[in-house]
Design brief:
mainly beta; Lipocalin; eight-stranded antiparallel β-barrel; DUF4334 domain-containing protein
Length: 181
């Protein structure tokens, strides 16, 4: 399937792919970055937010934890240049920091516990009352034993309840990590 093919999939098809996805060796993600493509959201929401983004993975040398962050990108479509938006100091605009955990440790509303989970609540860089802290992203490989194409989905963890969202995303490996905030 091409990236454009993923944009045409229904929520049921994306969920099926997520549930049938393959486990990921966390060490295979160390110090890498991926092009992210939003899937499953209505066009007006994508127009207000983004179609593409960058998701990073970095092995913290102090703690050994697999961590990461999102990078806001210039919106140039799927085939346009991949340029990060920059802050006033010229640094890439990073947001949504996270730690990556084992899916088996999470009570999630889909059958994707065999994958990893991006957990925005475990990162100390996110503001204390930022709603992003409620987000959890189960993540699986689309190709067994490989990490070039990953599929994720976002749900909200409200403590006593888990809330589904329509937000899926495709991650396509771009290469080694190019910036650490």
């Amino acid at each position: 399937m091409t990236t454009k093919d993923f944009l045409t999939l229904s929520h049921a098809e994306l969920r099926s792919l997520l549930e049938r996805g393959h486990p990921i060796d966390p060490s295979a993600l160390d110090d890498s970055e991926y092009r992210g493509v939003s899937l499953g959201l209505p066009a007006p929401i994508v127009a207000l937010t983004w179609l593409t983004f960058r998701k990073t993975f970095h092995r913290d040398p102090r703690t050994g934890a697999l961590r990461g962050w999102n990078v806001r990108m210039q919106q140039a479509g799927l085939d346009g240049p991949r340029e990060p938006m920059r802050d006033a100091k010229g640094k890439p605009r990073c947001f949504g920091f996270y730690e990556v955990g084992d899916g088996r440790a999470y009570d999630m509303p889909v059958a994707a516990r065999h994958g990893l989970v991006i957990d925005y609540n475990r990162a100390h860089e996110n503001p204390r009352f930022d709603p992003i802290r409620l987000g959890r992203d189960p993540l699986v490989s689309l190709d067994e034993g490989r990490v070039e194409r990953l599929l994720g989905w976002t749900y909200l963890d409200l403590g006593l309840a888990r809330v589904n969202t329509p937000s899926y995303f495709l991650l396509e490996r771009e290469g080694p990590l190019s910036y650490i905030p």
